[in-house]
Amino acid sequence: MLRAAGLLGGVPMLVLLVLGLSGRADGVAVVLGLLVTALGAFLLGRAWVRTLAGLEADLRAAVEGRAPGPTPRPLTRVAGRVTELAARLARSLAEREEMVGRLRRADAAIIEALPDPLIVLGADRRPLRANAAARRFFGGEGPAPATADTAAFLRHPGIAGAVDRALAEGVPQVAEAVLPVPVPRDLSTQVIPLDPPLSDGGRLLVVLADRTQARAAERMRADFVANASHELRTPLASIMGFVETLRGPAEGDAEARARFLKIIAEQAERMRRLIEDLLGLSRIEMTEHQAPTGSARLDELARGEAEAMAPIFAARGARLALELEPATAAPADPGQLSQVLRNLMENAVRYGREGGQVVLSVRALTAPEGALPPGVLLRVADDGPGIAREHIPRLTERFYRVDAGRSRGVGGTGLGLAIVKHIVSHHRGQLLIESEPGRGTAMRVWLPGH
To answer: Which range marks the domain in which residue 26 is found?
Structure first.
């Protein structure tokens, strides 16, 4: 402020001082002139400094995106207009910055709420951030899903090629990919280049559409038609043949009618079981790529299924030994795990030795056991004839039978272990089959637990 006053009053004061020293002006008048000039220069300098300080504050507020504060009263109209314009400019810039911030937050909220997984990639092809659907899909936490599944997805040849083409050509690209683990997932992907890039450096949007369920439904319809037409042909032909016999030669034969009606009922029951298993397997396959929620006490489920199957064991003269420890599987679907228990016990009692023993055990693994990590282990073992080694890898295929005649004779549909395999895969577990001819068969199911 003193420097400004010196600049404003320096020249007039120097002139008065020269006049006074040369005797051309009265000394008292010179002194008064010097005092008045100094005071005026001081007041004018202070006013200008305050005005400039106000302008600086307004401009600083504009740069920082803040609304301007109150400014000092300007000395002149021109200064007043300049100050007012600076304040208006600062307010306009602050309002514009606030609007841009609201738009950015709205864009982020829209992207976050999109139902399809979306990943933002930088120019170096690294994921910068992802929306909630992508984080759930890849199992990541935080804004960018840095998981092994994400890396495997971006390394997929089809996706990597689409990313390269989008960066090179600047136009959207489409790619198809199948992720094989933890369960197969069919993905349709769009890679959209961004010009100009986002504020965080994002150059590409990768939008995923999970087509697994739709394509599973397509396969389900095709498989159902193919499998049902093949497997239903024999019992349907048998039923039609006996019906024709009852209408013709055996129409008046009460003994033949009773025998044939019993066979027709058995074949109809076989068809019912087959259709139920096919539909159940198709439903499981449609949701296999989605992990279950909740938990299940496997020992309690095993005890309940064992009680429900007591009549079947009694009909075969077989004994069921239970070795159950408290064990909780999670995440788990209790209904599906009950079906696993039921199918494994049905296989054991049907294909095991008549009058033999089936052992059902459940225990919690608190430490790794061989190749199995901590979790829950279910085991169903029989003392039947066993299975040759070459058949074991194919036991979980649909309608695969080691002994087709015996399987149909005991009421099997050929789908039990296929259903077990898909349920275990749905639970992110493992199915292990151990068998040797003459030494029985043991089915082990490992499930994640806590």
So the answer is: 2-109
Mean of all residue pLDDT scores within the chain = 77
The model's pLDDT over 25-37, given as tens digits with 9 standing for 90+, comes to: 565 555 565 565 5
Assessment of whether the complete model's pTM goes beyond 0.90: no
Of 78, 109, 140, which closes a domain? 109
* Structure-token pair, residue 323: 């070795």
319 and 445 co-located in one domain? yes
Q: Which amino acid is residue 443, in one-letter code?
A: M
Are 292 and 333 contacting, i.e. CB atoms less than 8 angstroms apart?
yes
Task: Determine, yes or no, domain membership for 219.
Answer: no
Q: Ranked by mean pLDDT, which of 65-69, 334-338, 397-401 comes out on top?
A: 334-338
Q: Using 50, 70 and 90 to split pLDDT, how confident is the model at 61?
A: low
Evaluate whether residue 218 is within a structural domain.
no
Length of the chain as a residue count: 450
Specify the pairing of strand 173-179 against strand 185-193: antiparallel
Phi and psi at residue 360, to the nearest 5°:
-115, 120
35 is written with which tokens? 């005092």
Q: Which DSSP string corresponds to 245-283? A: HHHTTTTT-HHHHHHHHHHHHHHHHHHHHHHHHHHHHHH
The residue out of 290, 323, 346 marking a domain boundary is: 290
The residue whose two tokens read 């929306």 is 131
* Across 16-32, average pLDDT: 56
Ordered strands of the 357-365 beta sheet: 319-324, 357-365, 375-382, 441-447, 430-435
Exposed/middle/buried for residue 444 (C-beta within 10 Å: 0-12, 13-18, 19+): middle
| Residue 187 per-residue DSSP state | E
Distance CA 123, CA 121 (A): 7
Where does the pLDDT of residue 235 fall: very low under 50, low under 70, confident under 90, or very high at 90 and above?
Answer: confident
Give the number of domains in the chain: 4
Cα torsion angle, 127, 128, 132, 136, sign? positive
Evaluate if residue 68 carries a pLDDT over 60: no
Q: Which amino acid is at 283?
A: R
Q: Tell me if 382 sits within 8 A of 353, measured CB to CB.
A: yes
Q: At what angle do helices 298-308 and 334-351 cross, to 10 degrees?
A: 50
Same domain, 54 and 83: yes
Count of beta carbons in the 10 Å neighbourhood of residue 342: 19
- Long-range pairs, 107-116, Cβ under 8 A, ≥24: 116/207, 116/208, 116/209, 116/210
Q: Can you give the pLDDT at residue 3?
A: 52
Q: What is the pLDDT of residues 136-153, one digit of tens each?
A: 877 655 555 556 677 778
Q: How far apart are CA 242 and CA 268, in angstroms?
A: 12
Residues 270 and 301 in one domain: no
% of the chain with per-residue pLDDT over 70: 69
